[in-house]
Design brief:
Elements (H helix, E strand, L loop, with lengths): L6 H11 L1 H29 L3 H6 L11 H9 L2 H32 L5 H11 L8 H10 L7 H23 L4 H9 L4 H12 L1 H16 L2 H7 L8 H12 L3 H31 L6
């Protein structure tokens, strides 16, 4: 029986032996978490104040909280439509990226064929290409296909841009899955498609969750592409709307804080729902010894 401890197990045992070090670590982590939590609380707190109150006293707790800023957000700047646009575009990007990325990762991780190493090298190399270098040709392609100012104007470029990362993340996880599971399913009469959908995908859920979170965040926060490919306001996502709040309504900081709060809600909810899978997907490769 192999009793050799991994690096993480040795590190954990070290923390267990030296309790003062463990206490100091928790204090540092708690202080670090405050640097993330407090800005979120600050923005939400100011969204419950009138704009003038935000200017004069932005760091105090809202004594008379009001939801008027949220009412104005939906009535004045039509944030509901922008919400829907963002969810459709980002959700569509996640769906197609995981669909095609999962199939490609399965082939690269479970099959031996010519040019396999070359394709993997190209995937890594493609991560070095800046997105700004592809704006002009992508814009021309979308214009020739009459896709500008549509949901596809962001879904297609985002899917193509995020596929290499998704394939690498999924394939690096799938390659660790024992082939015995796959062989047992084939013996039971499963086709390759059923092996992929009923064995590989369920086992790879942590990797899929990790990839989906990153892809959703990147697509949701991509302001540059949205400004170029969907200049029409009816189709613009919420991050473009957020950038226009100060130009349209001057110094309405209460409305701006409200728009920021509403923008962050989907990201926080999705991460809270999938955080266990994300952590498992990020650390699974590190604890295998």
């Amino acid at each position: 029986m192999n009793t050799k401890k991994t690096f993480w197990e040795k590190l954990q045992s070290a923390f267990t032996r030296f309790k003062p070090l463990k206490i100091i670590t928790y204090i540092v982590l708690f202080a670090w978490s405050l640097t993330t939590i407090y800005p979120l609380f600050w923005v939400f707190n100011n969204s419950l104040k009138p704009s003038q109150k935000v200017i004069t006293d932005s760091f105090s707790v809202a004594s008379n909280p009001t939801l008027q800023n949220y009412v104005n957000a939906f009535e004045q700047i039509n944030i509901g439509q922008s919400y829907l646009n963002s969810l459709i575009m980002s959700g569509g990007t996640v769906f197609f990226t995981l669909w095609f990325g999962g199939l490609a990762a399965y082939i690269l991780s479970r099959f031996e064929f010519r040019l396999r190493s070359f394709i993997q090298t190209l995937l890594v190399a493609s991560l070095l290409i800046p997105a700004f270098a592809t704006v002009a040709p992508v814009s021309e392609i979308l214009q020739s296909l009459d896709l500008l100012n549509t949901y596809w104007a962001l879904i297609l470029p985002h899917t193509a841009g995020f596929l290499p990362f998704t394939i690498l993340v999924l394939s690096s996880y799938m390659v660790t899955i024992p082939k015995d599971l796959e062989e047992a399913a084939i013996i039971d009469g499963c086709s390759r498609w059923k092996v992929f959908t009923r064995v590989i995908v369920p086992v790879s859920r942590p990797a899929f969750a990790t990839a989906s979170i990153f892809v959703f965040l990147w697509s949701y926060n991509d302001l540059f592409s949205a400004l170029i490919f969907v200049p029409q306001k009816d189709v613009q996502p919420i991050n473009v709307l957020l950038s226009n709040v100060t130009t349209q309504y001057g110094t309405d900081y209460g409305l701006l804080a409200t728009a920021v709060t509403l923008t962050l809600i989907p990201v926080i909810i999705i991460y809270l729902l999938a955080q266990k899978q994300v952590i498992k997907g990020l650390t699974s490769g590190a604890v295998k010894g």
